[in-house]
Task: structure prediction
Amino acid sequence: MQIPADRLRNLAQAIFERGGSDEGEAAQVAEKLIEANLFGHDSHGVGMVPAYINGIQSGELNPGNQASIEHDKGSFLLVDGNAGYGQVVAKTAMELAIARARELGVAVVGLKNSYHIGRVGAWGEMCAAAGFISIHYVNVFSSSPVVAPFGGSDGRFTTNPYCTALPARGGAAPIVLDMATSLVAMGKVRVAHNKGEEVLPGTLIDSQGNPTNDPGVMYADPKGALRTMGLHKGYGLAVICEALAGAFTGAGVFGPEHLSPGRIINNMLSVLIDPGAFGSREAFDDEIEKFTAWVKASPPAPGVDEVMVPGEPERKTMAERLAAGVPMDDTTFEEILAAGEAVGLDRAEAMRIVGN
Result:
């Protein structure tokens, strides 16, 4: 089915309100989830609603909780998310980071103990819109480890995202590299499982460490594991994310003590830099534009429409989905309806919200 983005957002907001959020918080969380869907990252979109409701019911997610500053040392800030909605507390952390970077030219901000912060690229885009280069390292505490180390045969950590965003001249669309250090995000495996589709070769191993294309191994007992992207290179970057987001911020690194049902706790280290610090902002913009034009002028390979830079595929998908609606498989939609029912949203009312 194709559901208009505004109707899907309204459904998510209604569920979050019944889950204990005020209207403003529910709208903020729903908006960021829909934004992920529009950008083509369904793994971080409204399909996360059931996980969030599960987090509330298990006591891991605390609606209404706000971020607080734990340490303030000039260009270094440490923010505690207090297990509030990541879409809310991460926004606060980035607002603090941007203000400090404007004052000092650079800011290093740790955010710990935030519930799922969603699409990390959203925070890179927020920094870029304010005129800053930003680098983000994230680790995750969850109900189980889902990513195997290179050469290993079972999960030992999670998808540990990495993001860098570069601002563009005059507030134009930024360059945004936003990726899991696993070959795909766990949410993409969930989407494939719900659709009854296989995943790409090399994405998963079963519980014995054998390669498989079946996403069902992540829902079996014992479960399989995701593989890191780029073999040992992605694994190495995952270790760096774990160290900087977890150890450096004092939040902790993944281990058995962090396993808990309903848990999706993110920790993030963000570094914001004034792009004109070593010269001029104009010179930085000139060089980025020159390089972008150079790589995009490469003749497209067979079967490719155009060469794009990081961030362009998402913006292209957004235009398509704003016009046609957000694609939604039956299983995911049913899970969202069930999550609504769990917090008192009648199914008939939910269907009225989405216009069916």
About this structure: Residues 86-104 form the longest helix (19 residues).
